Structures
1.
Amino acid sequence: MSLWHEFLTNQNRTIWKWTHYLPIYERHFSRFINKSFIFLEIGVFNGGSLQMWKRYFGPFVTIVGIDINPKCKKFEESQIHIRIGDQSDPVFLQSIIDEFGLPDIVLDDGSHIQKHVNATYNFLYEKLNINSVYFIEDLGCAYIAYWGGRLNKKDTFIERCKNFINSFYLEHEISTESTESISVYDSIIALEKKAPNVVGQSSIV
Ligand SMILES: C[S@@+](CC[C@H](N)C(=O)[O-])C[C@H]1O[C@@H](n2cnc3c(N)ncnc32)[C@H](O)[C@@H]1O
């Protein structure tokens, strides 16, 4: 069942996504279908996206939603765990890892405030295992003052990504040495992890 179909035929809780996100998710997430893994979504809202992920990924996924709003707790059901806290609080994020293990997919659809997006990324990304995916949604907010953004403002996640790209091609830096790809879409950035590069030589005999 495609995510597109899941989204269009949804009769359950409201899902708050732009439609052009759906094929992007499929591109990065389809390899996880029917696998046993941890999916972490930051930002629960009405709980509809968590239900969509459950239908899409199948019976073996553990879905963890985190939100600052205590009312979101009521959206828990089988396979869907909801914890209440602030995405920029490292103690809270560590408690999620302690309880569920490291997520294989992180989808940041939380406050979209650049300070929060950075704090969550700073805490989680380095810890993630190889083959993990880190998604940040609604990055148009990086250009809008309300969310702490502005064009070319140094500390937005967009500006950081420009530096990640530079460090791909200059000397590998800690933040990118285990990154396989940085995919930049309309309002979404997806980072895929891989094993760190090892400097080696090959010889032809
Ligand atoms: C865009 S909505 C999430 C939509 C949901 N992922 C979906 O697709 O249906 C953003 C959510 O982030 C939550 N939020 C805002 N600030 C937060 C923070 N600092 N930490 C965690 N969640 C936060 C809000 O309460 C809201 O429910």
Note: The chain has one domain: 3-193.
2.
Amino acid sequence: MAEELERIMSEDAGRLLGGGSWREIVLALDEGIHIVDQQARTILYNHSAARMDGLRAEEVLDRSIFEVFPSLTFENSTLMQTLRSNREVGQSQQTFVNMKGEQITTVNKTVPVIFSDGSRGAMEISRDITLIQKLSENISSLRNRFSSGGSAEESVSVSRAKSQVKSNNTSYTFADLIGENKEFKQVMNDAVRAAGSDSSVLIIGETGTGKELFAQGIHNASSRANQPFIAQNCAALPRELLESLLFGAEKGSFTGAATRPGLFEQANGGTILLDEINSLDYDLQAKLLRVLQEGRVRRVGGQQEKKVDVRVLATMNQQPEEAFASGSLRQDLFYRLSVICLSIPPLRRRRDDIPLLLDHFIDLYNQRFNRRLEGVTEELKEAMFKYDWPGNVRELQHMIECGFNLVSRERKIGMDSLPLHQREKLSNLARVSSNLAEPLLQGDIPELDSYLAAVEKQLILRALSQSDNNITSAGKLLGISRQSLQYKLKKYQLE
Ligand SMILES: Nc1ncnc2c1ncn2[C@@H]1O[C@H](COP(=O)(O)OP(=O)(O)OP(=O)(O)O)[C@@H](O)[C@H]1O
Ligand SMILES: [Mg+2]
């Protein structure tokens, strides 16, 4: 059977890759691969699987898994379950002590396979997440110690990591939110009102619009301000890890993790911020919904439910309709979370706030860098008004910070003090005239040809700026061919 599999694999490899063999590729994979035949006899076992199990491949190959792994039974072996049911056994997390005495955590998936002679087998694919598991447990216990006070020394060392970390682990209040724009102020008002209630809040906004600031602001203005604030990004960890991190785990449970409370228990009395909620595993969203509805959590592998009093804030950088359409957010969870919904406008919709934000960040970095810069040049400011700011306020902040690093003897940050990629975009924009709309409404009527040429030039410069000076993409934006754009660039001497 092993030779048969090898023959099929190397034949396929010859056809598909023109060399090498599937076997070599599978053997070198980072994932552990373990294939058994219908009698649960191992016919392929790669290096990663051997490393995780602490065995040598020779000790496993051609032998029954029950002989090699005495703790396995017909019932608990996932390979056996797949062989019997001919069904995939989904992602499961296992913590075990391997033959070398090392504690290993893996995420496994077992799928049925059919060999060319029609006989069936099963393949287990394992990912080693021992390191991630350890890191997450460290973070969790650090949070535990921090939120329960810890020693003075510990608190100091954690708070030093961020400039002004408050005792509840946050750094911002509403006072740190800069903006006078009408739409922005409306969101601010809603946020202030939200702080006075205990309902869930869903904060929607593009990257860098200040979602985290709003969340911390709400917590710090609420009656829970002296209680813990715990933020967890839902996109960062595999499902099983996140599940036990959020809801806790019971020793001896299926996951084998040590007994520890989850973030919901640690945040008891306070607030939990679930960042990028639309990246949370779909099934886990259902579990989260139950916790929100019942106000109780049950640790993974645990029997008892525990009452928790936690206010939930969640963020998302996608519009809800898009998130439903792509299947990344459950509608039922959305309705539960969005009792209050704050939609933060992107910076390009609140350009009137640019001067205020500029002043704010210039002051901030003057203090940090111990300098006395006066601001940015008129040319740069004008370009900033025309720029689209895909990275929003964070991008503006970084631009100023970079300016402080690059500016030499000048008193103002200019184009030359920007990172190269932004310098090109913004200097293109600086050349765009901003009073083209005027002749449409008032003043002397310009000559049609020269006016249309000026409009054309302006649109070309904007399209180039938006597409990082890539002529093909700028052409696409403008709906003209690359050749015709090149012709126009020559005509207007924009090359
Ligand atoms: N209105 C604002 N006033 C002052 N600073 C702001 C404002 N909005 C954002 N910032 C700054 O931008 C940075 C990014 O904000 P934040 O981390 O809240 O963004 P986010 O919306 O959570 O982005 P992401 O989706 O990438 O996590 C903050 O560190 C803050 O310094
Ligand atoms: Mg954020």
Note: Residues 207 and 391 are 6 Å apart (CA to CA).
